[in-house]
Design goal:
Strand content: under 5%
Helix content: over 70%
Order of helices and strands: HHHH
Keywords: Membrane, Transmembrane, Transmembrane helix
Distance between the termini: 22 Å
Radius of gyration: 17 Å
Number of strands: 0
Length: about 80
């Protein structure tokens, strides 16, 4: 395990988790845009079963909340 993670504070770890959730949100946004760019007739035949919009919104709320809680402590030092 890297030394940074061994001696990281709770705020640092929370900020890393928040950044991970934001990354997952942007990946879900990319997947939704990619699904919407398909041919409309092909889209009718191949309906996607993953709710990318819900995943995006959920990850943005969780990641934003984690970063909002952690960043003041991380910036302070």
């Amino acid at each position: 395990m890297p030394e940074f993670l061994t001696f990281a504070s709770d705020a640092d770890i929370l900020a890393l988790w928040g950044a991970g959730f934001l990354l997952a949100a942007f990946l879900a946004l990319y997947a939704e845009k990619r699904r919407n760019r398909r041919d409309p007739f092909e889209r009718i035949r191949r309906v996607g079963w993953i709710p990318w919009t819900s995943i995006f919104i959920g990850c943005m709320i969780i990641g934003g909340g984690m970063l909002a809680l952690a960043l003041p402590r991380v910036i302070a030092g």
